[in-house]
Fold these 2 entries.
Entry 1:
Amino acid sequence: MTWTVETRDLCRIYGNGDEVRALDNVNLKIAPGEFVAIMGPSGSGKSTLLNVLGALDKPTSGKVFINGDDLSEVKDLDSFRGKTVGFIFQLHNLLPTLTSVENVEIPMLHYSSAKERRERSMKLLELVGMSHRLDHLPGQLSGGQRQRVAIARALANRPSLVLADEPTGNLDSVNGHELIKLMRELNESQGTTFILVTHDHEVAAQTRRVIRMGDGKITGDEVINSPVEQDLKDMKYSLIGQAIADGDLQALEKAGLNPSEIKALQRILKR
Amino acid sequence: MLKIILKNLLRRKTRTLLTVLGISIGSAAIIGLGTLAEGFQAGYNGMMSGSKADLVLSQPDSYDISMSTVKEEIGEELLALPEVSKVSGMTEGIVTTESVPYFFVFGYPEDSFILSKFAISEGVGFNTPQAGSSKGKPVLLGSQAAESMHKKVGDTLRLTQNVYRIIGIYQTGDAFEDSGAVLKLEDSQALLGKARQVSLFYIQLKDPGMKASFQERISKRYPDLLLAGTKEFASKQGMVDALKGTVWAIGGMAILIGGVGMMNSQLMAVFERTREIGVLRAVGWSGRRVLFMILGESVLVSLTGGLVGCVLGWLFLTAFASVLQYFGGSVGNIKLPLIAQAFSVVLVLGIIGGIYPAWKASRLQPVEAIRYEGGGSGGKKKRFPFGGMAVQSLWQRSTRTALTLGGIALTVGAILSLDGIVQGMVHAMNQMFLTDSEIMIRQAGIADTGYSAIDERTGARISSIPEVASITGLVFTAVMTPGSNGFFVVQGYSPNSFGIQRFNVVEGRRIEGNREIMIGRMMADSMKKQVGQSIELGNSRFKLVGIYESSVSWEEMGGVMTLRDAQNFIGKPRKVTMYAVKLKDPATASATVAKINTELPDVHASLSGEFSDEMPDMQNSKAMVDGISIMAILLGGLGMMNTMLMAVMERTREIGVLRSMGWRRRSVLGMIVNESLLLGVLGGLVGILTGIAMGWLFTLEPTMGAALSSSYTLPMFVRSLLVAVLLGGLGGVYPAYRASLQPPVEALRYE
């Protein structure tokens, strides 16, 4: 099969004498449609890996294949970035002078007509639940809303791979959870591969696979979360989850749950 | 504090450098031009104080010594007066030589007591047997002139069309005299067309105590002449005032453009550091302390600019020393007060340019400042109803856009207004000549039309050329209006010449004889004179017989008298300034021009349509305007590049994002260039309006303003727009290029 991402002995070394091995022989395979978190302490090479995968940075040695294509042989990296990869940054990095619709149109500027751009942009904003904020400037949006626009922008050219660097870094946990949930939904409905770098265990716990890094090496790689487990975890952030955490039995009984069911749920959510 | 200020400035080296350069040009202009003006003053002072005379007798209201005329025979009468010990006439004029366009010539009688100050270092003086036996008319050459023209005793010296033999080299210590030449009085009178006339008399009294009684005697006996002490006389030269005015006009413009650049740059520095300032406030800095920090930065930058400007000014004077020394513009004349002046101007510039940004910084709310994310409008601004990225970016970063526009507009405006005025002068001249004649003639090899003098015998020869139908001689000069600082343009026409028919007399009649004058409507109004009254000019009386209207503004600000009166008035009997020629067949015009120029080498003929353009005055004015334009473009370009550099730096991360979204380098470059071109076009349009407004402001200037009128042509507007777009484009391209080169990873990490 063709891997969406495949790296072979990937190295990225900074500096000359006092060299820093930001990536040290990284071998990685990610299949189409995966939803992956990369975790690790600061300086472990997560962001460098993301930059190299997105062709923003070049490896010192080793190879990167995206959808089977060797990046070192791709002539037009600009158009590769434009069409195959979407980026989401920690700080939304929307252009402050443009509206939501216009921001989402930016990546499409060289690849489609004005009418197509506008239609696609509106559709994407609807997909991320921002259709009521089409003509707002970034300054008029909340942090979570800005990141939703940023996600729409990343999907503009139907990339096969979306790279997100600490996308929830500037959000509170509820908004952060919402954002990752949105990404997961998009991952499921559009089949787009998502790779996100994060510090946050709660965020990583929402994905399907967690890759751990340390000192430029991969130190762990595990598949987590069956769909049922995920549904239960999502419940923690739902109203029912809140009520269980608060011990609001009255509300739960009103919702039709009997005491034994409530106890079972409490047990699961405590894990 | 000083350490923080220094670090802040060094953090943005390119920007600081550009701002310093911008300011230094202004200060260099003040130093360079100010030194020229000082040198002029020093030249007159040296001439007068070196003479050892007590008093100077000259024509009142003359603009400059070279324009003053007094009858030579008065010298004998003066010598007969009981108080007088010695008298010497002197002529002064400016001519062209082989290599120098403006060259001072002085004429003294051979036995003049003044000549003793001309210390001969090589060769001999006039009163020697060797002088009598030299081949050709003798001339003494100043030491500086000799050095820069590489002349020695025995060489020849050509002044306009005449050749002289150098018999001696002298030194007096005065810049004018040492860079000029001395002729025998009668030779200089012939050269300058001032037969039996001198520019002034130097008078030495037997006893300085007799000054008061002598002064009384002179004012009774010669009411139309002006007696003054040497010092007093030196300080009264109109040329010095005119030059000082120019210094301030150019300096003022440089300061205006530089100040806007300064404010722009500091404002950007504040925006860029909003979050940082928030942090300073949060850790306990007071608003006042922030204010002083920002103000300190701009003052330090402007003082550095001042210093660099001094060096530039010095370099300018050194580089052009060979030309400038003729006006006393030597490095030695850079005086401390002038430097102090330049620095105080620059300091004011720094404070004015820094105060608004500093105030703005000090008023930032710490909480908001810390949250500030740079560049954007924070949602406070409305969007411009239409237009793409470039329009929105300019519209929403309104303060910066306004300042940049201001900078471009001032640059373009300054150039356009000066251009307009020169064009206006050419236009006025053309209006005066074109309708009447096919060919215009002036003296060849002169520095300024004001010095042109063609002998009437030459006129007779011109009119005997078979193609010529008729000629009109005219005299053309300017005097100061009595009692005010204004100019009065005097024209002399023979009452029966075809040239005088041009004047549209609306009151009274045309002049018919000597001692009559007709004047322009504006002048009549400003002097409050009516037909029938008399007018005093240079202490001669004329009867006002008519008032005319003219579309040429300086004709409105002057008058017309008979050719004879005008010749006497300027002390050049039987000489005219120009000839206008009518041909039997206009088709022969070019051939006749060529014929006159080859047969009569003393004069220079041109087709009427080209005459104004070929006039040395116009050429000089154009050269000056070109010089100022280059300075303005330099200043404006620096400011523009600075702003665009900041705009691009501020958006480095934005550019990184665009690159990571698949934008090509070209596209990023295109976006920035688009924006700066748009800014350029807008700036050009605003600049054209500014230029027209500035042109109008010039006419309010008290001494010459009323004689100026601007005239604009389509090519001038197109050129202004081009300059603005070029400023915008060039200012934008370099920063954009720099930004597009940055690897996206680094651009994204930029703070």
Entry 2:
Amino acid sequence: MADNGYISKKQFIEELRRYQKGSVTRRHFLGVTGLGAATAVLGAAMPALRPSSAFAQGIGDRVVLATWPNYHDTANFDAFTDATGAFVQVNVFGSNEEMLAKLQAGGSGWDVFVPTNYTITTYVAEDLIEPLDVSKLSNYDAGAFDPRFADAGTVDGTLYAVPKNWGTTGFAVNTSHDGGKALTTWKDFFDRTMDDFSGRTMVHDYQLTTIGNALKYFGYSFNSVDPKELADAEKLLIEAKPHLFAISSDYQPAMRSGDAWLTMCWTGDGKQMNSDIPEIHYVLGREGGEIWSDYYAIPKGAPHREAAYALINHMLDPQVNAREVLAHGYPVADSRTNALLPPEILNDPILYPAQELLDALEFGAAATLTDPNRAELLARFKSA
Amino acid sequence: MTRRERNWLLVAPAGAWFLVMLVLPLSFVFVFSFGERGPAGGYVPAFTLEQYANLPARWTAFKNTMVLAPLGTLAALLIAYPLAYQLAVRTDPRWKTLLLVLVIVPFWTSILIRSYAWIFILGGQGIPALLAALGIEDVRLIYTPFAVTVGIVYGYLPLMVFPIYVALDRLDKRLLEASSDLGARPFATFWQVTLPLSVPGVATGCMLVFILLMGEFLIPALLGGGKVFFVGNALVDLFLQSRNWAFGSAVAFTLILIMLVTVAIYMRLIARLQVRRDDVAIM
Amino acid sequence: MSKTFGDVEAARDLDLRISPGEFLSFLGPSGCGKTTALRMLAGFEAPTRGDVLIDGQVVNQLEPHRRPVNMVFQSYALFPHLSVADNIGYGLRQRRPRLARSVIADKVERALETVRLSGFGKRRVWEMSGGQQQRVALARAIVNEPKLLLLDEPLAALDRKLRKEMQIELQDLQRQLGITFVLVTHDQEEALSLSDRICVMRAGRIVQVGSPQELYDCPASRYVADFVGNSNFFEGRIEEVDGALARLVTGGGQTLAGRASPGLAAGRDGCLSIRPEQIRIGSEPGPGCIEVTVQNRIFLGEHTEYLVRHGGLGNIIVLAPRQAEIGARGFEAGARAFLNWSDEAALILNPD
């Protein structure tokens, strides 16, 4: 679709369907609205949505999964139900903060959840996560995983989480508006926002990436909690705010419709938009930024623990995992799964950026999750 | 059973409801507001006024809410009144039901879906594209305070239309004839008879919309593009993102307090305007 | 003039001249078009055909607020949000150019005096009794000194005693102010006692216009005779019309004489009307007397009403003055009695 062409009927329907599924972007606006939690409650309150099992193999008739939108191939869940009799009840969430908030509040009813690397130590410290019994995970082969994306699952020598997918946080730019001058850095991102992209830029409604990428503008660490560095980032963000189109993690619709030309963006969204609209490029800021890895884990007090192990083990099966990648387009750290993937995926520069770009990236740090100053900074930025 | 016991029994369900749904949660909020945030978020019991001392950090959110709630209510009133008047006074009774249903129908649809529709209407491919075709370039509507106002007025219109409609519909049409008979021109009749007698409906509508607007967070989040920040949004962030329950409780309690005081003042003003006790709104 | 609502003809060929200072009543059962006639005068309805003239000017297109006419509404239509004084001053406040506040206050005060409500000005209207509200409604209308005051069943909501009082007050007021009053009522007694002229309506048409006495003594039709006062009716064939008198033979073969109403023709069906109070009842037979059996007796204070039965004429109602009975026991049910009346008291009418 041309940048200023009209959205087609088909695209509109797709957008709407994506929205209806609650799957607009990975950490999308459900987080903003708090509706993720509402979905979870509703799902649990409607037993009609669950089939009754005729042959529960001692693992119960269902398993509750808290995960991100657009992050699974539902056929894999159906296969799990066929094999075990346990129905997979999926609740989608908007942010790690929201997941943590829900677990902290208690009574989540989840059996499996999908935390991001930097949150796991906090879950351990808060005693909200169950150590994993590897004997129940026959498909888990520690040696098959790239340690960069698997290490965070182990805290103080105890395995708490096994890798699911990894990805990066960069920005997506509609190159038909860059006047021939490509954007390559976070400095470009903010400077051009206040110049030729004024009124066309979106940043996430998410402390980790929005503050982190503003920190990168100055060359500071993505994870800085240094008051002076945070003050610089805040000044930049507040200066840029009048030039922003929106502060929202739900950026795909505006990018696709041509209302927005530039946005902070995650791997999968970048891939999806680029596939449909080739002039939208996915760029990793040269200064660095975020690299992340998601994990499967079991929360303390999971009501169907056996089913939880069964589900995680099922998802770790390389055949199953390969089908997942083909459905959502995020890379995996499992070499067994990569061996099953077609070369065009393994060579895709959006999924697998050049090494020198990857080298500059940082994993999110636990401190950012718990630091009240970063949360307050984001609140000041949003209310400025 | 004495009469007194029986009376207690009769009010017991309402009392229990009131206790469980209102008093209990409010008490929690009140107690939490004197606590502290845990190291990873949540709530740690304490007795400190720190959270209340921190309130100025959400000054903008309070200020925006205190501006938006009255303005949004006024805007809804200005649009709802003519609509309700048209429906109640000018519309052929045969069409009334149909038109009333048309006013309600949007209410049956999720506010999310409806707000999303506005994102398309106000977005670049919507009204701005239309204006561009007419030669008016570069009009930005979506993710502005204007978009939020449109969304709010649209979302809360039925709540404003209905009480006013009922008040106008119950208005004795002979009073209008009497006014005309006594020499009042149509506008004078409206100003001196119709309007004062519809005050109860206006009061109810304004109250409903105002209270809901004070806590609004969804429409600003969706149509304000995250740039228009109200107390409701601050609360969502405090509880669901930064997990600062203590500060969130202080903000929530302050909002409730402001709401109660405003509503109390408003009720007194209306009571002064109010002339017939039996005309007082239908809530 | 005429008025139709959809297919319904509410008022048809109304042709009526109302004199200045007159008290005229529209009398008829509900749905006879009397209220429509009033509303056309007020300007709430426009005639479908014909004209409404006030002081020789056609006012058909004149909106109600431009007409020199005021109305007292059925159940008053007082403004609930205004005080008594503000209700009364409402019309004055609409005047352009504006009247001075003090002028309005004076006029309101005088209107309150006129309706004997001095000191009630600050009250809320719903604090007032029905009779007081009625007077406020009157004051609200007359304070504007209209050329024409329209009253739509103004006393219908009051109890009987209050109604009597208000009737007297209305009449006094009208004499005092000299304003033309047009009253709509279904209460014949009210119409008879108040009006200079009564316009009897039926199914949208005027059937007779005249003074109360004319209507009572010389009703133009059985309908009027029946609606205005009570009457006994004997149906039959008109045998002879001789100037002012006529004779009628009833179905039972009885020959009765009476005044001839205009337009009677011998050989046609007719109807004799005799008012109950015009019939004398006695215990002795005499010339021209008919013999009846007393069926029932109702003691009414100053009168006694007898229901009697005659072999040929059927049931007859007789109203006997009390005077004739003092000392006498009157007639018990089952007693034999004799009736007679003068031919001049009876009226022979065309049947409707």
